[in-house]
């Protein structure tokens, strides 16, 4: 699997709500991602809602044999910019069935619980995904927005293959989860990997490192993630082909030990 994937959240409308402002551009980005070697696309039923999954199918079905489509269930959208957890077994089942239909799949490659619902017993949420896996509707199970204890609890019920948490050069609160996933060989998929806007706060040091590699600060931030752990699979998202190519170019950067150390200082400082 190519370690730089594509996050398909931002191909939707403002507030991750409704259709994109430029439909053809969204389709072009998805097609370009696969043409450029991306082998994992991350989405969710709540992106749009439903819009991201529908665009993926429109652009890429029938899918290449090596393409992994990861989607998520467990959040509902009462409006633009609003996200509420819903981990009721009935809802998770309906969400998975909806994703299968929209993505035109018989089985979802990777289904991640989008966020644990505090109103529903955690074992019921994970247990529902296990049932769906036994029914052949899910191939692999992952988690999102979780701590180590939740990961351990889930692994008592299911084979967990991935964890997707907020993590980037300017927000390392999930450092303990990254270390756990590295030890346990679980894929760690950082969401918001480019910390849009926050990277500029570290412009001096980051810009100097980027200049040495004739690269963009965003490319260095992604290269740092790739170097941080072999289990990290960044999924930068964009709605433009130009930015997609820039992001994927980060895979070509090989940071020196000194620059990795300097970036680690930014991350911990």
Structural overview:
- By secondary structure, the protein is α/β, with parallel strands linked by helices.
- The chain has a single domain (6-196, 229-238), classed as NADP-dependent oxidoreductase domain (TIM Barrel, Alpha-Beta Barrel).
- It is 41% helix and 13% strand.
- The protein is built from ten helices and nine strands.
- It has helices at residues 23-35, 51-60, 89-103, 122-134, 148-155, 175-184, 203-212, 217-228, 241-248, 257-268; strands at residues 6-7, 40-42, 68-73, 75-76, 84-85, 108-113, 138-144, 160-164, 187-188.
- The strands form two sheets. It has a seven-stranded parallel sheet with strand order 1-2-3-6-7-8-9, with helices on one face. A two-stranded antiparallel sheet has the order 4-5.
- Strand 4 (75-76) and strand 5 (84-85) form a beta hairpin.
- Helix 3 packs across helix 4 and helix 7 (203-212) packs across helix 8 (217-228).
- It starts with 5 loop residues before the first strand and ends with a helix.
- The model has no long low-confidence stretch (mean pLDDT 95).
Keywords for this entry:
single chain; 269 residues; alpha/beta; TIM Barrel; 7-stranded parallel beta sheet; two-stranded antiparallel ribbon
Compact overview of the structure:
With 269 residues, this protein is α/β, with parallel strands linked by helices. It has helices at 23-35, 51-60, 89-103, 122-134, 148-155, 175-184, 203-212, 217-228, 241-248, 257-268, and strands spanning 6-7, 40-42, 68-73, 75-76, 84-85, 108-113, 138-144, 160-164, 187-188.
